[in-house]
Design brief:
By secondary structure, the chain is an alpha/beta fold. It contains 18 helices and 24 strands. α8 packs across α12. Pfam families: Lactamase_B (PF00753), Rhodanese (PF00581).
């Protein structure tokens, strides 16, 4: 028996490759399926099953393409109703894979079709669970994503999740290994550990949601407390996972169309495409195509694209580092953004060499503006998460989290200079690019963000300050 976790940090997502006696199962595969196929070939094995724990909201799974390429059967748990051929397994149904067995444990709550897969080893002992979004390390799946589909409240779903955990998962032995679908950084939970594998016994000790003396009402209250609105692209990804999508090969072929600066400009004007610049933020600050949006590959690229562009049908034109065009298209497709029309051949340097207009972002160090900030002479906007802001922030800073920038951009002044910062410089440049694309140019970015601010002697506090600028 061979179990391999395939963890993608950008999405904080874990897919799984399981092989026994030449037969392979893949659990929650990513959109690009060739690595699974090549791994099976290297093992001289055949992919037999593709197990899906639920209809994912935060990424587009590769189940349909992988089934088409390999002939493997797609398996969902009870209550799933996909628009394509799949085995809808019964609760406790078992599937043989070489010498091992994978048992279906229906664990609704995160969604109503959510299912945990229990792996039994060669002698029939419970070895591991693949818990999807039902159980994370340090947390459980948020119960608010499937309210409309299930015609239930988040409290109803939380109560169902409580029963699933107590009746199906917690009775398992402490030495059972937990393989979750996500880790820290995913928007599918709120309190996940940085580790990606653990034992169930340790989770019973460490995970607040698995306390033995916890009542259902306590569970509901704690699990639903502090839930932020989910990213707007989540329902669109669910729809794609449930109803189907275009093959990634066609998406790559279209997205890797090389466009000269002239053709790129014409395409941008004629299609209304978003010009998405995925270079490093330091390069974007020094020069970029006017009204382009920065979301760099070096950060949490795909989740920020999903949160800020929102509409997966949005046409996109790429400005990418030379050699990173394919990676960019793949990572966009992971969250359902399949509308990449092409990329700027030769990158931004080609744009400049062609004599095209370009824009810049004014950036300063924290030391250069420390006096103005301490004297509160210039508005300072903090685009970190609310939880980061509450923990520690600059005195008088105004918190508008990047996640909600599109809804709150009117709170930024248009008639005076203001400053922007995040933790390390990535998110504030994203914010600056969006504001400039909307015609707000009177901004200055603080390079290196809050880490540099603290080192500069600017006054910080852990007391909550007003969050709107008057």
């Amino acid at each position: 028996m061979n179990i391999q976790q395939i963890y993608t940090g950008c999405l904080a997502q874990g897919a799984y490759y399981i092989e026994s006696k030449g037969e392979v199962a893949i659990i929650d595969p990513l959109r690009e399926v060739e690595p699974y196929i090549q791994r099976a070939k290297a093992d001289n094995a055949k992919i037999k099953y593709i197990f899906e724990t639920h209809f994912h909201a935060d990424f587009v799974s590769g189940h349909i393409t992988l089934a088409k390429e390999t002939g493997a059967s797609i398996v969902y748990g009870p209550l799933a109703n996909p628009s394509f051929d799949a085995i809808i397994a019964a609760d406790n149904q078992e599937f043989k894979l070489g010498d091992i067995t994978i048992k279906v444990l229906h664990t609704p709550g995160h969604t109503m079709e959510s299912t945990t897969y229990l792996l039994k080893d060669e002698v029939g002992r419970d070895h591991a669970i693949f818990s999807g979004d039902t159980l994370f390390l340090g947390d459980v799946g948020r119960p608010d994503l499937a309210q409309k589909a299930a015609d239930m409240t988040q409290e109803d779903l939380a109560g169902i999740l409580f029963d699933s955990l107590r009746n199906k998962i917690m009775p398992l032995a402490d030495d059972v290994i937990v393989y979750p679908a996500h880790g820290a950084g995913s928007a599918c939970g709120k309190n996940m550990m940085k580790e990606t594998v653990d034992t169930l016994g340790n989770q019973k000790k460490m995970n607040y949601a698995l306390r033995a003396d916890m009542t259902k009402q306590e569970f509901i209250a704690e699990v639903t407390e502090g839930l932020l609105p989910p990213p707007k692209y989540f329902p669109l990804n669910v729809k794609m996972n449930k109803e189907g999508y275009e093959d990634i090969g066609a998406i790559l072929e279209r997205g890797r169309t090389a466009l000269s600066p002239e053709d790129f400009e014409i395409a941008a004007n004629e299609t209304g495409a978003v010009v998405l610049d995925v270079r490093h933020q330091d390069e974007f600050v020094k020069g970029h195509i006017p009204r382009s949006i920065f979301i760099g590959l070096n950060g949490d690229f795909a989740p920020w694209v999903g949160a800020l562009l929102a509409d997966v049908k949005q046409p996109i034109l790429l400005v990418a580092p030379v050699g990173k065009e394919k990676e960019s298209v793949i990572r966009l497709s992971r969250v359902g953004f399949d509308g990449t029309l092409g990329y700027l051949k030769g990158g931004f340097d080609a744009w400049k060499s062609a004599g095209k207009d370009y824009d810049k972002i004014t950036a300063v160090t924290a030391d250069e503006v420390s006096e103005e900030i301490n004297a509160n002479k210039v508005p300072l906007f903090d685009v970190r998460k609310e939880s980061e802001y509450k923990k520690e922030h600059v005195v008088n800073a105004i918190n508008i989290p990047l996640d909600f920038l599109n809804e709150q951009f009117t709170e930024f002044p248009k008639d005076r200079i203001f400053l922007l910062h995040c933790e390390g410089g990535y998110r504030s440049v994203i914010a600056a690019s969006i504001l400039k694309a909307r015609g707000i140019h009177n901004l200055i970015d603080i390079s290196e963000g809050f880490s540099a601010i603290k080192a500069s002697g600017i006054k910080v506090t852990d007391a909550v300050c007003p969050t709107t600028f008057k």
